[in-house]
Amino acid sequence: MTEPADQAATWRRSEAVVPRGVSSGHRVGWKQVFVRTQGAYIWDQEGRQYVDYLNAWGPIVLGHSDRRVNEAVLTAANTCDLTGVGPQAGEAELAERICAVMPSADKVAFCTSGTDATMHAVHVARAATGRLKILKFHGSYHGWNDHVAVGSSRKDLTEGSALNTPNGGGLHPAVVADVVVVEWNDAAGLRAAFDQHGAELAAAFTEGYVHSFGCVPAAPGFLELLRELCTAHGVVMVMDEVKTGFRAAIGGYQSICGVTPDLTAFGKAVANGYSLAGLAGIDALMGHLGAYSKTEATIDGTYNASPYALAAANKTMQIMESDDIFTTLYARGEQMRTGIADAIAETGAPATVTGLGSEWCVYFRPELPTNFREAMQSDAEMYGRYHASLLSQGVLEPAFPTGDRRLNAATTEADVATTIECVRVALRAAVS
Ligand code: PLP
Q1: Strands 49-52, 395-396: parallel, antiparallel or unpaired by DSSP?
Q2: What kind of fold does domain 67-322 have according to CATH?
Q3: Which residues form a coiled coil (predicted)?
């Protein structure tokens, strides 16, 4: 079959055989089809170059198509590929690396996606405590397993509406009865939830630094309060570091904030784009991850700890350390946020910018949000014009107002300076 002549034709071809043309929800709504990646850049089928601040929603941290990582993968594939028996090549090495840097990691088990990792966290917590209920925060996304795909729908944010509704169709409606959803940064609400449900809670899920609705840090003391309540009520504290792990810091956000969870779900940046994720945790809990027992949680997956993904992750972590990429990521991120803040002040746009390390978010509202409802008040029409202007200038960012954006370590000072000029133009377009 000949290649479609243009992007529209490629979309039509895909839509004919793949539902909505894509296999992941956030990939719809674009005209572009990307066909080449390198370093900080990405090229569409019609040859246009963009500086990439989406970075596949998180995984690309060193830079696109990193040759060092790809060579490690190829070597692994050509030496001993997936065997399905015993420890896989590179598995213990990667677990040792993670245990050495992540405060909550005594042991690590590997899977293939963040959704898998959070599902295993639920199972381990339930097996360990003998309880069923899960607490999570409103708006926080933890993947698509039924147990946690609750209370983060962008569709119903009416004041007073129930928080614990399933995020989409096909999810088991009965599960929501066992999910307690609390507003992020609501300390009184959190205390009340533990007072009411503490004895029935198996786990409390939290992002250390929220990226599910942009960039919204915990208020001072909030994570510490969650830790304290979990300990007091015998509840497993799960930190979802799928976005922050290996990006905010090599040891995850927990190594920055000083609050150590019992279990950590991670994925994305650990393998610079290869599909590796995992669950890390304290010995006492990871011991509940047995194979095929009626009482212990099971981890089982044909592609878990595939030697290709392990090789990618071992190489990525090695480069993170040898090249001190976090100094670069933080410097460029700071340059970006400061430049955008100046551009906002200069243009008078009713916007704010915030973020951490290599990530940032521009909200079209005068004040920074502290929770999901406030974040969702970012003006979607202004954001639409802002986004369209940036795209036309060759800057690729998420297409919805609460999308967090991030740069990778191949992004140069000059790339950021050019982007800030594009932002100036886009802010004017947003308010026009
Ligand atoms: N947890 C968080 C915080 C995420 O941002 C995501 C994905 O964006 C997930 C879990 C699910 O990860 P995956 O898409 O690898 O299943």
Answers
A1: parallel
A2: Aspartate Aminotransferase; domain 2 (3.40.640)
A3: none
